[in-house]
TrEMBL record:
Residues 8-78 form the NADP-dependent oxidoreductase domain. This is Methylglyoxal reductase acetol producing /2,5-diketo-D-gluconic acid reductase B. GO terms for molecular function: 2,5-didehydrogluconate reductase activity; methylglyoxal reductase (NADPH) (acetol producing) activity. Keywords: NADP, Oxidoreductase. The lineage of its organism: Bacteria, Pseudomonadati, Pseudomonadota, Gammaproteobacteria, Vibrionales. It comes from Vibrio maritimus.
Amino acid sequence: MSLSIPTLGAGTFRLKGDDAYNSVKMALEAGYRHIDTAQIYGNEKEVGQAIADSGIARDELFVTTKIWMDKLGKDSFIPSLMRV
């Protein structure tokens, strides 16, 4: 089965800590399957935990993120993706 990225995604801008976690958790419970975040938001840990706790298969979800400009270099891009 091939999935297409949903046009509408749940954003996480300005959400921190429990607010980020709960927002993503509620969005997934409401049927969202596209979650949008960014490294600069500082909430990737909470977003990831909400996704993990949802029980939804990873191949049913789309997670989009933005990489900050200072991490686009050859030596910093991949390491920046591995940090939480």
